[in-house]
Model the fold of this input.
Amino acid sequence: MAATSPIVTLWVKSEPFSFGALPVAPHPRLSVHNIKKIVTYAKTKGHLGFPKLSYSVWKHIACNKLQLSDDIAWLYFQTCDLVSNSSSEQWPDWDKQYSKASNPVEIEQCRNGVTVDTLKFVLFLFIQHLHKISLRSSLVVEEWPMRAKSPDLEGRNTPTGSKTMDEHSHLTFVMNHLNDIMELLVEPGMSSSYDNKDKQRFSSGNLPGDSYGGSASVNDLNLSIEAMEALGFIISGSIDRNRSSKPLHEIALLQQIQAKSG
Done:
């Protein structure tokens, strides 16, 4: 008797958006095009760039290519590491070492010891667009209150008020930007037909429980296992009617699911 296929439920995780998306509009240079180029550049840096991204490589990209300040570059990197919980066991020892750093050289040495998953980091940078708004739509009749401007925020459109983004808002954001998210994770040439001789890949358009719909371009993309693991940064799921959660890539690896997802 054939095994019954599990009932798969997927949902957008709230933590990366609630605690990872900074409550300011993203830097103008953090466009989808530039974020995509981060992966390409990181892969040219060997083990320092992919699959784990070192802070030294990210700082070079952020400060020399994207024109971000040192503090903003570190803020993005550290926040991603904290939200993704990738090195939580190492943070107590790292905090002690960092607190003892007495000069810029020692501080930089501490920071250079931190790494994050490269693909998760580009997703983290992308969800900074959660708070991107139109300055024109923010205009109000009353005169804006005057306040000092931070040099790091010069030239950006920042929200005029804070707003708690609920789970529906997070889901809507992912649905509206699914094409961009997949483009960040797909490797060059992977949008072609599935190749059984290549390493195992999954079709994003046939993901079980996927109710996003999406365009033909999304349905034609194939993701590597590494990309599925990274996608688990913002999407989780269950195969037991929501009694427990399961990482997205583990769901995709189930034999009953592979028959549907490819």
Observations:
- Residues 134-165, 191-216 have pLDDT under 50 and may be disordered.
- Residues 70-84 form the longest helix (15 residues).
